[in-house]
Write a structure and sequence with these properties.
The chain has 17 helices and seven strands. It has 330 residues and is mostly helical.
Length: 330
């Protein structure tokens, strides 16, 4: 399959040597531990939980905003002391952050793009692992990874991080599309054991405000950010920009929560940093790679490989019977 870069709504073939490098890098990002890459093109015709016309399918196809949004989500997760203790004591963020992030990234791809049967099986495995994660935080608070309250927090932070990263650094989305995205997450969230999802962006922000008094600063937050700057997570072509993307993630955290966590403005983006990040995010949104889960999933459902990369007016979800373009007012 030939690979393309879209500009001005038109496809331009990527030179084969560069295409092969990009495709190998894309595959390596999601290669499971010691196993074969997941084939999202099979079984033919089996739908995912999210629809190909959904906002989710467009947001999750962008590797730059996924990295930025994922880092922002983890910052918010680690701000909750019980979640922080569970993550830091029962996962490999310290010892092998790349392996841990690959597993998390693959799980997100399967949840959004994978066939329902595969997604259900994967989510069941995750829930079984969560049942074994329990303990006591340094302050003496008991925690369990299966606690619905903690699952609810992890879910809303992930939904917020991925949406805001795309909205800020790839293509601004109008309020209707942002609210629609939150609604799309409900079905799979319930399978993970989440009991409350945000039905809109305002509801997500209300959850953040309600939780703010329970969030606290920790040296672990700064250790995590340092790991994310240095770990070889992104492919070589993007790795030099990784510290910049970590700054972009910090800038996504609501200002009052940043203050609560003791994250100074100096850790966020400067003026020219923001421009560069947006250019990288916009470019990543136009590259059609054969190995990527969104491309393979489109093929599984009988859609063109470049379906998600065509004109937004042609393929973005409609609202109120009328096609909605992303909000470009910034």
């Amino acid at each position: 399959m030939e690979m393309y870069f879209y500009t001005a709504g038109k496809p331009f073939p990527i030179p084969r040597p560069l295409a092969r490098r990009l495709d190998r890098a894309s595959s390596a990002l999601l290669l499971p531990d010691g196993g074969r890459a997941v084939d999202f093109s099979q079984p033919r015709g089996e739908p995912a939980f999210a629809d190909p016309h959904s906002v989710s399918w467009r947001i999750y196809k962008n590797p730059v905003s996924l990295f930025i949004g994922g880092v922002a989500a983890v910052i918010l997760e680690l701000a909750e002391p019980r979640v922080r203790t569970g993550v830091w004591e029962h996962s490999g963020f310290r010892s092998d952050p790349v392996r841990r992030l690959k597993r998390t990234g693959l799980a997100a791809m399967i949840t959004v793009y994978g066939p329902r049967s595969g997604a259900e099986a994967m989510i069941l495995r995750v829930r079984r692992m969560h049942e074994r994660v329990r303990g006591v935080s340094p302050s003496g608070a008991a925690y369990s990874a299966s606690d619905p309250e903690l699952l609810n927090w992890v879910h809303v932070t992930a939904a917020f991080g991925f949406l805001q990263a795309y909205n800020a650094y790839v293509a601004p989305l109008n309020p209707a599309l942002r609210d629609r995205y939150y609604g799309e997450t409900a079905a799979t969230a319930a399978l993970y054991g989440v009991t409350r999802t945000a039905a809109s962006e305002n509801e997500a922000l209300s959850i953040f405000e309600a939780m703010r008094g329970r969030l606290e600063p920790s040296p672990i937050l700064f250790e995590f950010l340092d790991i994310m700057r240095k770990a070889k997570v992104l492919p070589p072509i993007l790795r030099q920009a990784q510290p910049l993307f970590v700054r972009a993630a910090v800038s996504l955290i609501p200002a009052l929560i940043r203050q609560t966590l003791g994250l100074p403005d100096e850790l966020g983006l400067k003026g020219w940093h923001r421009t560069l990040t947006r250019k990288a995010g916009a470019a990543a949104d136009r590259v059609v790679l054969a190995s990527s889960p969104p491309v393979q999933s489109c093929l599984r459902l009988g859609l063109p490989a470049d379906f998600l990369y065509r004109s937004r007016r042609e393929t973005w979800p409609s609202g109120g019977g009328r096609e909605q373009e992303p909000d470009r007012r910034g």
